[in-house]
Design goal:
Blueprint (H helix, E strand, L loop, with lengths): L1 H5 L3 H13 L6 H12 L2 H5 L10 H10 L4 H9 L4 H14 L5 H7 L5 H14 L2 H10 L6 H13 L6 H9 L5
Length: 180
């Protein structure tokens, strides 16, 4: 674990993480979370365009999915508060990949994100988790979306969830004369 903590480049980090996964070092989970944050603070990371940053941290999210450490939901909640949208997208992917529960409120909030990619990812994760209560919440939002992007994200989540019983509400929402 100390070797992983002291790795400065992502290639070495990746190899050490593979080893930690192979030996099932579940206690490495919190350290991998810390490494995500450390990697976002490097000059290399900060000098890249936002769309080009993900290779610097994606392998860490994939490692967490393979490692499956305990109490990951609490760690993901902290990652959802990260200021970097690339980290949030990784946390959303991890949520869907591991079918993490107890994050519905946060996922629903991401449907209002100013970042299109985060709204899309949140819709995919909501659909992947397939919770009936969430589908009901999505249907309620159809009556009072905050903006057109929010409405589009909700419709996307309902479509990906194959929630066909919301079809009439969606049609009504889209055809209502007061909507843009």
């Amino acid at each position: 674990l100390e070797i992983f903590r002291n790795c400065k480049d992502r290639i070495t980090q990746s190899h050490v993480l593979d080893t930690l996964v192979a030996i099932r070092a579940m206690s490495a989970g919190p350290e991998v979370i810390k490494q995500i944050d450390r990697n976002t603070r490097t000059y290399e990371y900060m000098s890249l365009d936002q769309e080009s940053r993900h290779p610097n941290i994606d392998f860490l999210f994939h490692g967490l999915a393979r490692l499956r450490p305990p109490r990951l939901v609490d760690e993901v909640k902290r990652l959802f508060d990260h200021p970097d949208p690339v980290v949030i997208r990784g946390a959303l992917w991890l949520t869907g990949e591991m079918k993490l529960r107890g994050l519905n409120d946060r996922l629903m909030a991401f449907l209002c994100s100013p970042h299109h990619a985060i709204r899309e990812d949140a819709a995919r994760v909501i659909a992947a988790l397939g919770q009936k209560t969430t589908k009901g919440e999505l249907q309620k939002i159809l009556n009072n979306p905050t903006n057109p992007e929010h409405l589009a994200a909700v419709i996307n989540a309902l479509t990906l969830s194959q929630c066909y019983d919301a079809e009439n509400e969606v049609i009504g929402c889209l055809s209502h004369h007061t909507r843009d």
